[in-house]
Amino acid sequence: MEIPILQDIVIILGLSIVIILAFTRLKLPAILGFLIAGIIAGPHAFNLISSQHEVELLSEIGIIFLLFVIGIELSLKGLASIKKIIFLGGGLQVGGTILITAGISSFLGLPLNTSIFLGFLFSLSSTAIVLKLLQEKGEISTPHGKIGLGILIFQDIIVVPMMLFTPLLAGETPNILSTIAIMAIKILLVLVIVYILARYVAPKIFGWVVKTKNQELFILTVVVFCFSVAWLTSTVGLSLALGAFFAGLIISESDYSHQATANVLPFREIFISFFFISVGTLLNLEFFISNILNIILLVIGVILLKMLVVGGTVVILRYPPRTVFLALFSLFQVGEFSLLLSGVGKENGIIPENVYQYFLAISIITMGITPFLISAAPKITYTLLKAPIPSQVRRRLENIKKSSQAEEEFSEENLHDHLILIGYGINGSNIAKAARKAEIPYVIIDTSPESFEKAKKNNEPIIFGDATQATILKHAHVQEARVIVIAISDVDATRKMLTTVRQFTQTATVIVRTKYVKDMEDAMRLGADEVVPEEFETSIEIFTRVLKKYLVPFDEIQEFINQIRSSDYEMLTSMKKSPHSPALQHLNIPNREIVTLKVQRDNRQIVGKTIQESGIGKNFRVTVLAIHRDRRYLTEIAPDTIIQQGDLLYVFGHPNNINHLNNQLTF
């Protein structure tokens, strides 16, 4: 039996492999390779695809899996924490783009309905591309990552009212208000269902599935859950992608979200490639080549317009300049839902064929350059922030950051020989608690509005600002600090902070938190005195506890830890290749165990007797290390310590001897 789409899959994926292999050698992003593969295989080039509609369906599945994974990583609490960004930021960005685009288009002579519809199209950015790139860079949880996520969520929601409003722009007169009211009720109902599923249903279902220890059943449950919620939202008129996002939020509240992510990722990588390929197939090469100059000018205009609106939106949200630039370099492109919406507009006669082709060319070009700009955004931002700007403008930017508001709450003049804590996340807040308890003077710097408000509620001395900027560090008296702790997850920002800090002080001890050991060398080179990688510090803590359980002497444990840290964790990273260290010689005591035995049986030879009278040491050849009795521990074990029924004995000895004693203590 012949399957036409199978031939198309082999052709487009095979072509993609060749192109991406070449792009990898040239260090170009894979997304661009998929777009080019789509252009080559599309109907306007070599016309290698016969099942265009089926390929588009596969691309839709890719978007579903992408939004599903994003939802898992965010969680309902995380979504609630960015509600201001979603509704205020998203509303400002979409509304501002529509107004400006409609005004410019009308000025150029386009009809009003077409102008407004173009505003709809250009207000939407690419959820698939932006979130994929931010996820690969580990920046979803950064300030600009949360801004991008929040605005993109709003765009995915607002695309539904846009589709409802499109027939009205075409001159049709349905009862649009009643339609929108019904849609609002449906959305509210979906949110209620999502909450119930997340709180009560999903944890139980996945708990039952996990108990079966059947991996295939677990994967099947995850996929069915994802597609079911996507189908639910689709039936009420919302997008499949938004439903998949809700499904991810539901699973994020369970204890099995990490495993669900691991299972879904391979599906996502395969299907999302079809999305980028399907976008590439839409480009008309003949029209593109003949109008290349106009297209380039329009691309520049659209990028500048969207950057202006996004930048203004982030400024209104009171974020620092660095976050403003990183956000606008992420959301400047035209999105995949714009392509879907443009088809509706074309069917209703709102957008002419030539305008539609211009729109397609702009969309694909802006999508194609997105990976380059997002990758270069930190360097461009750093250069722009270093550029000379008028002092009045700089003062206005600093007022936006609310640093003056923070200064009123504590006296900067008292900051001397103090601790500067950059980042008020989990690590930062714990360090602040310890500093307060130890009566160490400290000040916190953070750019997150949520963290800022949390710190203010806790009466913490905090400055709202970006610690990569010299002005903010000056407010914190960086030149007089004894210790500076950088406790953030943004690697690029950490590097900038280290460089800026060392411009003011060479004497302060700078301690940096990093996720991976591989980042240590770079941080040390830029001026860090100590780098604490989460990757191995957790391993050391666990291993230390293991050593204690094996009764390794404390000084040898400490010596082992010092050896690991002094060698920059090389002992752990190369453990398999190195011979055992002498410090590990007590890890395994041959034929000896430490176990706990419950005194259940009223054995008169042991119960009620002292350790010496019971003959535990002489007759059973085991040693009692401690006794747990009545919710307290007896650790000072002497020959006259009495054994009572119900005691929990911690004993050390040969396994056979321990078993023999256990038989005397149990029924």
From TrEMBL:
Provide the primary localization: membrane
User: Membrane-spanning regions, if any?
Assistant: 6-23, 30-49, 61-79, 86-110, 116-135, 147-170, 176-197, 217-250, 270-289, 296-317, 323-343, 355-374
Q: Which Pfam families match?
A: Na_H_Exchanger (PF00999), TrkA_C (PF02080), TrkA_N (PF02254)
As for membrane topology, the entry says:
Multi-pass membrane protein
Keyword terms: Ion transport, Membrane, Potassium, Potassium transport, Transmembrane, Transmembrane helix, Transport
The terms under GO molecular function for this entry are: antiporter activity; monoatomic cation transmembrane transporter activity
What is the annotated signal peptide range for this record?
none
* Domain RCK C-terminal as annotated: residue spans: 582-667
Q: Does the keyword Disulfide bond apply?
A: no
| Entries under Gene3D superfamilies matching the protein | 1.20.1530.20, NAD(P)-binding Rossmann-like Domain (3.40.50.720), Regulator of K+ conductance, C-terminal domain (3.30.70.1450)
Where in this chain does the record put each RCK N-terminal domain?
A: 416-533
| Lineage: superkingdom | Bacteria
> What cellular component terms from Gene Ontology apply here?
membrane
Indicate where this protein resides in the cell. Answer: Membrane
What's a single GO BP term from this record?
A: proton transmembrane transport
Q: Which family does it belong to?
A: Belongs to the monovalent cation:proton antiporter 2 (CPA2) transporter (TC 2.A.37) family.
Kindly give the PANTHER family that the UniProt entry links to this protein: SODIUM/HYDROGEN EXCHANGER FAMILY/TRKA DOMAIN PROTEIN (PTHR42751), SODIUM_GLUTAMATE SYMPORTER (PTHR42751:SF3)
Protein name, please?
A: Potassium transporter KefB
